[in-house]
Amino acid sequence: MFLPAFIYSLGADIILAYLNEKNRPYSAQDVFGNLQKEHGFGKTAVVKALEYLAQEGKIKEKVYGKQKIYFADQSQFPDVSDSDLRDMDSRIADLSGQVQSASHSCRQLDAELKELLSSLTTAEMMSKIQELKAECDRYRERLLKIKSAANHVTPEEREKVYKQRSLYVKEWKKRKRLATDMMGAVLEGYPKSKKQFLEEVGVETDEDHKVTVPNI
């Protein structure tokens, strides 16, 4: 069979070596996707190389509907006994355990590294301590000024203010409740909405001014 020189120049030998190394089925798209970045193969060149290798009997081809699958010729590999398969399964399980253990260790080390990177250095910690000391000194100075001031509010005066506040809040709530009840009675026979009623009579509510009755 005549072999165009450009097929091998585009990497049929590389594709053959790849399929033999991986020893698993691939579509032409898979081979193209896996080798294009490293070798710069074009999709058409990969398809032609696979077809040529299959025609030459160097790889096997299976057709599933409209898709073709290519894989290494298994006759080139030595037969594997059941004992060998069990040994390989055991080896795979052992390596899988090592991978899981290594992954766990990597995650722990990554967490430790992130914690260390987020921690303050000794110099940064000393600087922070000095800032906090200066802040404490400012608070002490402010406290001394407050204590030395002559216009302190006595406990009796403070209690009087609290009682007055409580009285005013109670009266506020009482009047608000009465106004709400009266307005509810009027609205029972009023043909328009509550909003229209308030606009017509010129009533402004606490809600209009974003005011809420404080707790006593």
From TrEMBL:
Any matching Pfam family: LZ3wCH
Q: Which UniProt keywords apply?
A: Coiled coil, DNA recombination, Meiosis, Nucleus
Top-level taxon in the UniProt lineage: Eukaryota
Is Coiled coil one of the keywords UniProt gives this record? yes
Coiled coil (residue ranges): 122-149
Predominantly, its location class is: nucleus
Cellular component annotations (GO), alphabetically ordered: condensed nuclear chromosome; DNA recombinase auxiliary factor complex
Q: Where is the Leucine zipper with capping helix domain?
A: 153-209
Please name the GO terms that the record assigns under molecular function: double-stranded DNA binding; recombinase activator activity
* InterPro entries per UniProt: Hop2_WH_dom, LZ3wCH, WH-like_DNA-bd_sf
Biological process annotations from GO: homologous chromosome pairing at meiosis; meiotic joint molecule formation; meiotic strand invasion involved in reciprocal meiotic recombination
Where is each Homologous-pairing protein 2 winged helix domain found? 13-72
Task: Give the UniProt subcellular location, in the record's own words.
Answer: Nucleus
Name the PANTHER family for this protein.
HOMOLOGOUS-PAIRING PROTEIN 2 HOMOLOG, TBP-1 INTERACTING PROTEIN
What family is reported?
A: Belongs to the HOP2 family.
Q: What is this protein called?
A: Homologous-pairing protein 2 homolog
Protein source organism: Electrophorus electricus (Electric eel)
Q: Which gene encodes it?
A: PSMC3IP
